[in-house]
Design a protein that fits this description.
The structure is a homodimer. By secondary structure, the first copy, chain A, is α/β, with parallel strands linked by helices. Chain A folds into 2 domains: 145 residues, Aspartate Aminotransferase, domain 1; 241 residues, Aspartate Aminotransferase, domain 2. Helices cover 41% and strands 14% of the residues of chain A. A 7-stranded mixed β-sheet of chain A has the order 2-10-9-8-7-3-4, with helices on both faces. In chain A, helix 5 links the parallel strand 3 and strand 4. The radius of gyration of chain A is 21 Å and the shape is globular. The first copy, chain A, starts with 12 loop residues before the first helix and ends with a helix. In chain A, 55% of the residues are buried. At the A-B interface, helix 2, helix 4, helix 5, helix 8 and helix 9 of A face helix 2, helix 4, helix 5, helix 8 and helix 9 of B.
Chain lengths: 396, 396
């Protein structure tokens, strides 16, 4: 078959397979990127489905509007205002099938072949994969512990000029590093971009999984021009399988997103939107989030303690203040793809850090998920991985 | 904002708005393209949700695999084998969020800027809109009462040569005309394309909504090369709001679709897949389809009788043998966009036929949906529309 040129930009399936659920029960996988299924409020979800099927009836199984359910959009806007201090109107929010779809549509909306997209590095693999299909050049901007490095960003904005068509960032407890941008850095970022006609996709997937503080104010709350487009999701704080997420953008931009959403799948599933709306109206989402952040904070601590105990000293990490991941760095000459092979032989999986770089890959890092494993699996898995790592580093 | 070039190819929102649910209760809308909400088997759907939430537990709310639920894919393959006489393997089927997503991904997979996509005309507006975003040239091939006209197809294949990258067709009770391709025409079509390296997207959305016969054998059943890609859906035969649909393709092609599906939304919603699987296993889908085809056959008859009674003689239609629509043709100099304005003033809506043409639009046709209205609304709506049409035609 003769495929479109964009297909040559796609990663091969091996990465996709790394995310597949392990079929071997003895595998301890730190590769996952999802919340713990134990955390889903099953009884409340069941009630929400039951009640909403009875109350909404056939409407819950007909096409939703392309924008998504009015009542759900209102609930989300209320939450955003309360938690994130951002106000959007009902014309500025659309329901998407996962925030992944919001990111994908953004590529569709803004990016031509040979344009440039800027990412903080490392970045979310799913966004990199989605945006790669638009045949753009993906450029990574280095980060430090406080977020994207503003001088590096400015340098790229000057160097690439009008070719830069989009910036994609995850300022809160990002995937894969778990780091969060400081408040100062957020303001500096908005100052650095405000004179450019470039949309910023702010991915807030992890913003409410905050261990030590209230969620930080998102970039979009500092944006006076309406150039930041915010994507949010219930995947990490509630259930990823519902695929209920949202995207907020200035009204003139939203009009275009609506046409694209309609073209790509007409509308998101209806019953899952009703269920989510019912849940938000009748149950306490904040209490649920408190429950899961308590659980994940504990699992982060268990993993950090185990790393301190079992990993060689040369392996470095920063304790993340939220999110689902610990990011471990080995000495620069080491390659975690090689380490993964050895780990898999001992039934341990993780994602090598190089997978998360849109450009200028580094090979000496790895992403370890802590949200999705019981304490004993975290400890025994990290013990084995620590030993494998030690042995690998000792080879010099 | 600087948008991608493809955005200039998009239709404006007016068409999208034509599909919005009427907010005015007094409007009688023949514009819809969906099944009757009264037809959903609500009690069985409710049971399927309840049971599956209990049985599957948290798995029903975690990420599904990108391919979709194994058990559901097996059920669909079994149905396809029984009803349509086509066999695909488990590696050749993927669950999509509506067949719309399958069509959209096909554009992504096969079409470069300035390539050519062939459509039978008129064709499904959603497919035209989705494929338009890939910046291709859309060429319509004329049809007659037996389907796409093979000589016209051959002429275009020769004329455009390697530029033709995809053919999109709806051989069964198609949207918008309700016509079905004859068996002979299906075989001739496969013969005409088999020496070209061009994928055919066969949209089977209406194949089981057959009023007088068993579903016809799809194109894909005559295809020995694996160049036909089949999209199917539960939207028209069960519930559109679940967004559960599927796409079948040869394994080497499917590998690419998987990467694209992963990039576009990771996976379809999980609980709706479980629910559909439960329904197929525990209830009688064939009986349900018999129920709705009986209902729609009746409504088709009511509409046809009303047209015969109230429309002027110059308005022509063919009685459709399945599907959801009657396609009415006025004298060639007439414009149904003008007619729509007058109809809306009398609280009657429909979709002007010109909306369904990818190229070389004709303006003298209209699509009337009969599946979604009660008898009395069909009759009184057609009476009013008939009067408006008479008056419009009399103006000469």
């Amino acid at each position: 078959m003769r495929y479109a040129d964009r297909i040559t930009f796609l990663e091969d399936r091996s990465l996709l397979e790394a995310f597949s659920l392990p079929k071997d029960d003895s595998l301890i996988s730190f590769a996952a990127g999802f919340p713990s299924p134990d955390s889903y409020p099953m009884e409340e979800i069941e009630e929400a489905f039951m009640k909403t099927i009875k109350e909404a009836g056939p409407a819950a199984f007909s096409y939703a509007t392309t924008q998504g359910l009015d009542s759900l959009r209102e609930e989300i806007l209320k939450r955003m205002k309360g938690k994130l201090k951002v106000s959007f109107s009902m014309e500025e929010i659309i329901i998407t099938s996962g925030s992944q779809q919001g990111v994908d549509m953004s590529g569709m909306l803004f990016v031509n072949k040979d344009d440039i997209i800027l990412f903080e590095t490392p970045s979310y693999l799913g966004a990199v994969n989605a945006l790669r299909t638009y045949e753009a050049k993906l450029i990574g901007i280095p980060t430090d512990k406080d977020g994207i490095i503003i001088d590096e960003l400015k340098k790229s904005l000057v160097e690439y000029g009008d070719l830069v068509k989009m910036i994609y960032v995850i300022p809160d407890y990002q995937n894969p590093t778990g780091r969060s941008w400081s408040c100062e850095r957020r303001k500096d970022f908005i100052n650095a971009i405000k004179d450019y006609d470039i949309p910023v996709i702010e991915d807030g997937a992890y913003s409410e999984i905050a261990f030590d503080t209230e969620p930080l104010r998102p970039l979009v709350s500092y944006d006076e021009k309406g150039q930041v487009i915010y994507v949010g999701t219930f995947s990490k704080i509630f259930s990823p399988g519902l695929r209920v997420a949202w995207l907020c953008a200035r009204e003139d931009i939203m009009e275009k997103y609506l046409v694209l959403k309609n073209a790509s799948d007409l509308a998101s599933a209806t019953i899952t939107q009703y269920q989510m709306d019912y849940y938000l109206k009748h149950f306490d989402m904040d209490k649920h989030i408190e429950k899961i952040t308590t659980l994940y904070r504990h699992r982060r601590n268990v993993m950090a303690d185990a790393i301190d105990k079992f990993f060689p000293e040369e392996a470095k990490y920063l304790l993340p203040k939220g999110g689902l991941f610990i990011w471990v760095e080995l000495p620069p000459e080491k390659d975690t793809r090689e380490l993964l092979k050895r780990a898999l032989a001992k039934n341990i999986a993780f994602i090598p850090g190089s997978a998360f770089y849109p450009s200028n890959r580094k090979y000496n890092e790895m992403r370890l998920n802590f949200s999705n494993l019981e304490d004993e699996d975290i400890i025994s898995g990290i013990e084995i991985l620590g030993e494998v790592t030690k042995k690998y580093l000792e080879e010099g």
